[in-house]
Specification:
Helix content: over 70%
Radius of gyration: 54 Å
Strand order of the largest sheet: 3-4-5
Number of strands: 5
Mean pLDDT: 83
Number of helices: 3
Low-confidence stretches: none
Largest sheet: 3 strands, antiparallel
């Protein structure tokens, strides 16, 4: 039997066989072609599988990077939001402290004014008026106009021309509070 090698498949096919059944002669060729097609199909499937796996890995990597970026931004936004809430809370607390101090100061001023006005009922009050009248005359001179114990303010108010001294009870209370505030500030 005479055979030659097929260049494409490496299969040896008999030539010159005189058999009347062509399928016998073609069977090895058919099997070789099937084997070659199967090998090519397996190679294509393997290449496609590798390509799909690489694409999946790339997509997974991209998703992981995007999730990490979203988490980073979220953490950053959360920190910024937390920082803003802390700043707002501190500002609110500062405002509350200032408001409480202002209310306390106002109550202290009212209490000091009330206590000063109550001095009018003290038996030593006339001597206090005499003292401040003498101080006012000393500062402004004997020609000063003295208002002694004005109804709404008590104490002494004196004027001479454009010069004026105010020893009214509310003003004396204000001065006492200023002195007290200076002492507190120094300590």
């Amino acid at each position: 039997m005479n055979t030659e090698t097929s260049l494409d498949t490496g299969l040896r096919v008999p030539i010159g066989d005189t058999s009347d059944d062509p399928s016998i002669v073609l069977e090895p060729l058919r099997l070789a072609l099937l084997a070659d097609a199967d090998a090519q199909a397996q190679a294509l499937v393997a290449a496609a599988t590798r390509e799909v796996e690489a694409s999946i890995a790339a997509v997974e990597q991209q998703c992981n990077e995007e999730v990490a970026e979203i988490e980073r931004r979220s953490a950053s936004a959360s920190r910024a939001s937390l920082d803003q809430r802390i700043a707002n809370t501190r500002a609110d607390a500062h405002d509350a402290v200032l408001s409480a101090r202002a209310r306390t100061h106002d109550r202290l001023v009212e209490a000091a004014h009330a206590a000063a006005m109550n001095m009018r009922h003290d038996p030593r009050y006339p001597a206090l008026l005499d003292h401040f009248e003498a101080v006012a005359r000393e500062q402004l001179g004997d020609d000063a106009v003295i208002e002694r114990d004005p109804l709404s303010r008590g104490g002494i108010v004196a004027e001479l021309g454009s010069r004026r001294v105010d020893y009214s009870l509310p003003r004396l209370a204000d001065r006492a509070l200023e002195v007290l505030a200076d002492e507190v500030a120094r300590s």
